[in-house]
Amino acid sequence: MLISLDWLKQYVDIKEDIKELDNALTMIGQEVEAIDIQGKGLDNVVIGHIVEYGKHPNSDKLTLVKVNIGEEEPLQIVCGAPNHKLGDKVVVAKIGAVLPGDFKIKKSKIRDVESFGMLCSQVELGIGEDKDGIIILPEDAPIGEEYRTYAGMDDVIFELEITPNRPDCLSHIGIAREIAAYYGRKVKYPSVTYTEAIDPTTKVAKVNIDDKDRCKRYMGRVIRNVTVGESPEWLKKRIRAMGLKPINNVVDITNFVMFEYNQPMHAFDLDKVANGSIVVREAKMGEKITTLDGVERELTNGELVIADDEKAIAIAGIIGGIGTEITSETKNIFLEVAYFTPENIRKTGRRLGISTDSSYRNERGIDIEGIPDASERAMALIAEIANGEILDGAIDKYIEKPQKYEIPLSLEKLNKFIGKELSPDVVGKILSNLGLGIRTLSQDTLVVIPPTYRGDLT
Fold first, then answer.
1. Beta bridge partners of 110
2. DSSP-based three-state secondary structure for 332
3. CA count, 13 A, side-chain hemisphere, 214
4. How large is the average pLDDT for residues 71-89?
5. How confident is the model at residue 37 (pLDDT cuts 50, 70, 90)?
6. pTM given for the model
7. What is the DSSP track for 2-19?
């Protein structure tokens, strides 16, 4: 699981350095496998503006430019790339920069002409594979700003080994809860606001769960008149931090909320769903579906599918079908947020040889009670970013609620077990900070009530 420090700070105040945070994550039971300090090799790399451009006096293949980097005088730089011109915004490695591969930028003479820096390509910065030309930035790129800040490469990414019994930690909010408990701080949950149209969701969509053993809850919402397009930079940055490539604003939002709440979800193009009808059912023998990865799959083992009145449109909890994918032409969306039994997801994924971020989470178990929060968060973002209009009310088929546990905890046994004397108040505070309900049963015994996202506590 990748966790972005910049993203994590949206939910909990963190002022500790990387080393201390590494220790804290280890102490709360989340092993840190790797830490990627992004942009660590980009000191003294800034945005510049070519204000003078000409040919090198002693070479037909080199250019001689002057670049404004926000200092008193522009830098004179000799460049061998063919793709720049007067007025371009470029990436400049100043004298003193040490680029990947221990390449040090020094004052130099190239064909008897002094050069005071370098215009950089993706390969030279270690951020891509394009080596044929220097990076050309948009016209509004701010002169003199550090390139890593501009490009969103000033983040720290922690790679965590999350144990199978803690699926709640497969999200930024899940880790924020643990960090907040460790330091005794508050979790800052996202604020969600949106308005609904007068037209009800049930006017254009309906949901039936035929297989009630493998789907315990299915919530659907409709957002119409959306504008599908490129995501804003902040959203693309979040998606890239998770190792994914941004696709479009709607798909990126569903991925964003999944990494935020640990709640997989799927958006269907509602106009491609026959009769607006969603059916959760067992696949028919030999039924075929072409999934979003472009592979046609034949279903022969009664896999759980999402279907309309005519065909399967998704393999439940694992991957959607290409026939109802969100494209630039999409106008109306059906948003699915559901709970599928982990055993079914695990078996189906292995049988079909499919592993996705959604299946990874669904097969470990998600918080069935957290479905409305994740749905509302996604809807609000789609309305804001894609200008969607949310129809009134949710379709919420809730088949089976989870068992709620009340666990007696003997303070005497607890203190013997940990080898330290803790007072009932201290124990209660620690458990409350972890989001657990507490009730006093006797002088020596507390009753602990786990929240539904802590399925490991029984």
1. 113
2. coil
3. 22
4. 94
5. confident
6. 0.86
7. EEEHHHHTTTS---S-HH
